[in-house]
Design a protein that fits this description.
With about 280 residues, the protein is of the alpha/beta class. The chain contains eight helices and 14 strands.
Length: about 280
Amino acid sequence: MGILDGIENRYLLESFEDHETGSGVKYIVADYRYPFCPKNNIRRIEFENGGSYLYSSVFLSDRQVFQPLYPCAQRIADCFFKLTPIDKALVLGCAGCTVPRFLINRYKSCRVTGVEYSKTLIEIADKYFISDRMKERFELINDDAFMFVKEAAPDSYSLVFVDIFVAEKIHSSVFSQGFYDDLYRICGDDSIVIINLFGLTGKKARELSVSITAAFDVKYVVEDLRKYFLALIKTRSRTKLDAFEKRLKRYAEINDRIAAGDQYETKPTPHKKDQGL
């Protein structure tokens, strides 16, 4: 074990249980500090639920743009918005505010709205994870994400990130057709929805992408180290799509690409890693 891997670098800030929902989930907030590389200091909120262990984390330095968690999702956004600005972004499910922090640090004019169901997690986020710099362009709302999307105004967002879980499982409503119809409605032109499919196999991720009939122009299943994200794009610009795909292939594998209409139509092919599943 290296000197930077030792337990002496872990500093417990707070531990608590989620009494609000009665779920029995245990939470720990801790800092991981590296004396020889302070820019890599990380703050993490850790979840323990019946033996399952999950966490969300951020770099403590606002100078760190790309955050330690969800690098693939951050690259998807960055590849799509490489040459165009993000006006407004929506993050559904915030916990440690990893994605909001990335968006604030990366896109100087982007305003971010976060929606989180748990009041406990909102209190923790406000106390430990939302920096002073973020507060200028970030609003965290206590609400049901699905109702928020249903009631949001049309054409409101350039980017929507969906990270809605119950413990370690994706919320069942993420699989509903009505949810995708609502997402399409609230997205403006040249926009993208990125959905965290943690826990799904590649086969299940592609089955989900095929089942969605909302009018997104192109749907992608993107893989990074056997973790999958679904990217739904609303644009009529072939040039933008081609540039997005070229950039993205440097960082992750596009497992599936399903187009709406003849202009971009391709037939999905089985992924070699999923044979025999």
